Amino acid sequence: MLTTLISQSELNVPTDLQNSEQIQPLVTAISLSNFVHQTLQKQPDLLAEWLAKFPTPDDCNNYAERLAKVLASVENEEMLGQVLRQFRHRELARLSFIQSNKLATVEFVFQRLSDLAESLILAARDWLFQCCCAEYGTPKNTLGETQELLILGMGKLGGRELNFSSDIDLIFTYPDIGETEGGRKPIENSKFFTRMGQRLIKVLDEITADGFVYRTDMRLRPFGDSGALVLSFTAMEDYYQEQGRDWERYAMIKAKILGEDNQNLNHRYLKQMLRPFVYRRYLDFSAIQSLREMKEKISREVVRRNLTDNIKLGAGGIREVEFIAQTFQMIRSGRDKILQERSLLKVLPRLAELNLLTRTQVQTLHNAYIFYRQIENVLQAIDDKQTQTLPTDEASQARLIFACQSYYQQDLYSEKTHWVEHSFNDWQQFMAVLSQYQQAVRQIFNEIIGEEETQANCNPVNEKLAEWKDILHYNIRLEDLSAVLKGYPKVAENDYTEIFRHFSTTFQDWVKRPIGVRGREVLRNLMPRIADSIFKGEDHLLLLPRVLNIVDKITTRTTYLELMLEKDQILPHLLALCSKSVMIAEQIARYPMLLDELIGNRGLTDVLPFEQYQSALQDYLIRIPEEDEEALIDGLRQFKQTHILRIAAADILGVLPVMKISDHLTYLAEAIINAVVNMAWKQLTQRFGVPAHLEAAEQGFAVIGYGKLGGIELGYNSDLDLVFLHNAPDDGETEGGRKTISSHQFYLKLAQKINSIFNLNTSAGVLYEVDMRLRPSGEAGLLVSTFKAYDYYQKNEAWTWERQALVRARCVFGAENLKQAFEQIRQSTLAQPRASGQLRQEICEMRQKMYQHLSSHSAEQFHIKQDQGGITDIEFIAQYLVLAHSHQHPKMAVWSDNVRIFDSAVECGILSFEQSEQLQHCYTALRNKIHHLNLLRKDSVVDASEFTTERAFVREMWQRLLA
Question: What's the pTM value of the predicted model, to 2 decimals?
Answer without folding.
Answer: 0.70
